Amino acid sequence: MSGNAFCLGLGVGTKSSKGEWLEVFYAQPVYEPCNNLIKALTETLGYEGGNQAIELDQEKLAAVEAAFIERNAEDQAAIAATLKGSEQPLVLCILADDDAPSSTPETYLKLQMISHRIVEPHSINLSGMFGLLPNVAWTNQGAIALDELPQRQLEARARGELIDVHSVDKFPKMANYVVPTGTRIAATSRVRLGAYIGEGTTIMHEGFVNFNAGTKGTSMVEGRISAGVVVGKGSDLGGGCSTMGTLSGGNDVVISVGEGCLLGANAGLGIPLGDRCTVEAGLYVTGGSKVVVLDDQNNAVETVKASQLAGKSDLLFRRNSVNGRIEVKTNKSAIELNHELHANN
């Protein structure tokens, strides 16, 4: 195998009684590990290239630790040492390239790469991931296969214990795998694994962040960041506001919020925003919304679809309280904006 691999992770996880992976925790994924380390693992485990999730017993774990030590990968060697004697399933996941994941361990490694801020949303291939993520009962006793939950609950009750089911979902909460530095998350259950939470972001109790989505820097999130939506640094999402993700009606349009923007309380967004834009509280702007463009004297210049304003900066979207129409103002002149809209017609 030539060149560096894409990523590797030494993980510990949970399997069902049928031997199927439910989840995998990677303490410290390694992005683009050096070729010498991959070569050492090849010699140790018989790795033959490609994307593989190699299950490890204690003997193989010791060999992997020795390979890490030999190649001066001290952090990974320390992880291997911690896992000695573990009764949980162990796996070494090696991704030679960014092909679509083909196993549950590969999918978990890629989601954790995003949450560790190793890669940004939309920058890696997650095609087909839903079929590789089992629907799991996430409990105070860890991940439990759904078909095993009733018996586990009965056995727990017989011991005078309670299995508390926090959620039933394909995705666990991010904080059980990654807590990014410099962040505040008031309700960790509302941030799914695979979210990208930028340095300086605060997510309040009603804030929500889905996978392959998140914030790039300092932001206050009191609304919903749907799957695939990325929010630029310095932008705030007011209480109850919503962004339309690719799974909730955005289809193939990738919704994003630029830098220094504000989505007011209970507002909604169905187009990409440029920088320094504001959407008034309570206003939902979709791609098909008819928007009246105003000049600096508040005179109507033209009516356009909101989709024609996608990605443009310095816009204020508001609802006219008298006639109910959606209006947009800009700190540029509306005439300049009008020329810009039609420049490529």
TrEMBL record:
Its EC number is 2.3.1.117. It catalyses: (S)-2,3,4,5-tetrahydrodipicolinate + succinyl-CoA + H2O = (S)-2-succinylamino-6-oxoheptanedioate + CoA. One of its GO terms (biological process) is lysine biosynthetic process via diaminopimelate. GO terms for cellular component: cytoplasm. The active site is at 222 (acyl-anhydride intermediate). Succinyl-CoA binds at residues 224, 239, 242, 265, 280-281, 288, 305, 318-321. The keyword DNA repair does not apply. It holds the Pfam family THDPS_M. The keyword Glycoprotein does not apply. Coiled coil: none annotated. Catalyzes the conversion of the cyclic tetrahydrodipicolinate (THDP) into the acyclic N-succinyl-L-2-amino-6-oxopimelate using succinyl-CoA. HAMAP family: DapD_type2. This is 2,3,4,5-tetrahydropyridine-2,6-dicarboxylate N-succinyltransferase. The gene is dapD.
